[in-house]
Amino acid sequence: MTQDNDELDSLVRKRIRALRVAQGWSLEELATRAKVSQSTLSRIENGRRRLALDQLVTLARALDTSLDQLVETATDDVISNPMIDAAHGQMRWPLKADPGMTVIRQRLTGPPPDNPARMRAHPGREWLVVLSGTAILLLGNRRLRIETNQAAEFPTMLPHAIGAEGGPCELLGIFDRDARRGHQRGEDAEKANRPAP
Fold first, then answer.
1. What's the predicted TM-score (pTM) here?
2. Which of 16, 40, 91, 120 is 20 to 30 A from 159 (CA-CA)?
């Protein structure tokens, strides 16, 4: 066996044990669900028994997962660095699990626009959490105050705008693909319509 195979073998065994423990099941409970003996399961988890494909399929079903997830290799890119978007004053982190999703860190210094015509609406969903300060979210006809450590989630088809109250605020937002596109188009359009300095 190669080192990569040994590492995968060890990872699968650890994953089986971790999934069993997360369910709160004893060796006996999982063995009963998977229709294998308790000693066989113990030897699988401890590396004293060869992993057989048919047993992995049975264990995956018993653990309410798929064989693909059970044998999935670990990725080396656990930590991701932000991409700096200086044009929009943001840091962005694309989510590896779902390339359509983006995480954005933003610092807001002014209040939300008082002109309803400047509120945006577009397909998608947004989720945001205020890291510091207080944010004001205009959502349809509502004005919502979001304080530090509070979060908001909303469909972006509702006209919306966000700003700071009483000083700067920092927030972290998660945008699906449609919401991100809608905001980029809106920010680019605002820049194009600003008078030259």
1. 0.52
2. 91
